Amino acid sequence: MLPLDRISMLPAALLLLLNAALSAAQTRTTLQTGFVTTISTAPNPPFFILAAADQLAVSIALCKGTTDTPGPRFFLTNSSTTASPGPDGGDNVFEIVLDQGHGSWTGTFPSGGVLGVTNVPPTMTFEIGVSTGVPIHESAAVAALFGDSTATQAILFSPPFSAPDIEAPKYPNYTLPSAIPSIPAAPSDPKNYTLIVSPTSNGLTSMQQTSCALRTQRSTGVVAAQNLWLRDTRGWRFEWFMTGLTPKTNYTAYVLLDDYKVTKPIFFTTKSSSFSCSLVSRLPYCPSIAYAVPLPPPPSPALSYDSTNMPASLADPLISSLTNFTTTLTTFACGRDFYSPIVTCADCQRTYRTWLCAVSLSRCADTDTAPPSAALLPSQSPQTRNAGFAAGSGTFTQLLPCLETCTATDRACPNFLGFRCPLPRFNAAQSYGVGFIDSGRDGEMGGGSTGLWADDYGNAWCNSGW
To answer: Where is the signal peptide (predicted)?
Structure first.
């Protein structure tokens, strides 16, 4: 730093430039690592200081406008010789390119850095996040999971998290789960998920696909119940039971994680007002079941069926079949002898449980909202497959089980059980959905009309039991 007597000898013009530079440097905002800074007016000067670090992830989220609205541009430098990064470049200047309102850059900052912003619209609000790990703002590749709907209700799930540590059984103590398996303790500190549901006509997909933009939208309907549920080995999920929806309406759903991350959208449609089936979920013996079954409305004040009010005429035979099957399966020397180098007795029991739940708990469909070519069968109770639906079930349209749910069990189980599935070239289509996951022709895989049993638009072509 120059002594005062030397500074006084500098030309007046140079003094003005020096004062302006010092003033600009003093008014630049320093971005704190591990925090999110919200900017609601165009910054002046348009630069932000970044602290020195071995690695920083700088993320941007636009909070207003649509995906085709011109937005600000962001330029970053980790060079100590570039004080004002912008479109004209400089040493180590990188542009953070935004996609649907998101953008991030990760790198080293040995001497700190500077973030510059240009072309800020007058009413734009945006967030800047700085972290030493992954970017704070993120558009996650995962999505919410749609269970099923009635005319005014729906079941949705968050992405999975906290996968349980399930140890595979081993010989000589090869013990399989019971028909009603014990559920591990739920995580004490679960993820912070927020569900947003809105009619598709509101155009949420045209907005900036950021959490700060979507948080400004009021969610439709009422989350009447929120529970943690372990659907499968992928992990725990939040299960949301929604009410107050409108019949025959297309909806869009997002899930926000920790306020700054947002999943990709999914879509679903509510059934017509004449739809008479009821939703069922949270069955420990059928943990993945979350759809409408041909039952009358549950006893008040319950909104749906679960393990506490499921009719014994349906639950008892199902549990008994699982118990008997497991007993028969374990007559094989599981874990000591191997009937396959790929699958085990545990795989056999798991796939059998999925198949049994899918065929025992008929899934209702709505002819007014079902996708074209779905495996639908008008049904009159009592069902030949499950007479437990006889009381008050009436007439309904059934979404047939996927044939692959059966063949998965056939492949996973030892031959001595005698489990067999009908063949597509004969009579499989009488009781199963054929050609939706596989082509329906023996030996040819992946040639179905969809390649999946369901999609992110709420369409279901057959009932997989998942």
So the answer is: 1-25
Strand partners for 223: 242
Same domain, 99 and 160: no
pLDDT tops 80 at residue 382: no
In angstroms, rounded to a whole number, what is the distance separating the alpha carbons of residues 39 and 58?
15
**449 falls within a domain:** no
Average pLDDT taken over every residue of the chain: 88
Segment 315-335 shows an average pLDDT of 96
Same domain, 47 and 86: yes
Query: Do 58 and 191 share a domain, yes or no?
Result: no
Residues 188, 202 within the same domain: yes
Quick one: 98 and 204 in the same domain? no
pLDDT at 389 over 80: no
pLDDT digits (tens, 9 = 90+) for 241-273: 999 999 999 999 999 998 899 999 999 999 999
| 55 is a domain residue | yes
User: Is the domain of 186 the same as that of 220?
Assistant: yes
Query: What is the tally of structural domains in the chain?
Result: 2
**CATH number of the domain encompassing residue 110:** 2.60.120.380
- Residue type for position 173: N
Residue 446 resides in a domain: no
Q: What percent of the chain has pLDDT over 70?
A: 89
The answer to whether residues 122 and 182 belong to one domain is no
Q: How many other CB atoms are there within 10 angstroms of residue 205's CB atom?
A: 16
Closest among 394, 426, 370 to 297, alpha carbons compared? 394
Q: Based on the domain organization, do 217 and 296 belong to the same domain?
A: yes
436 assigned to some structural domain: no
Q: How far apart are CA 441 and CA 371, in angstroms?
A: 22
Confidence (pTM): 0.88
Asked whether the beta carbons of 456 and 410 are under 8 A apart, the reply is: no
Mind listing the pLDDT tens digit for each residue in 191-215?
Answer: 899 999 999 999 999 999 999 999 9
- The β-bridge relationship of strands 29-31 and 47-50 is parallel
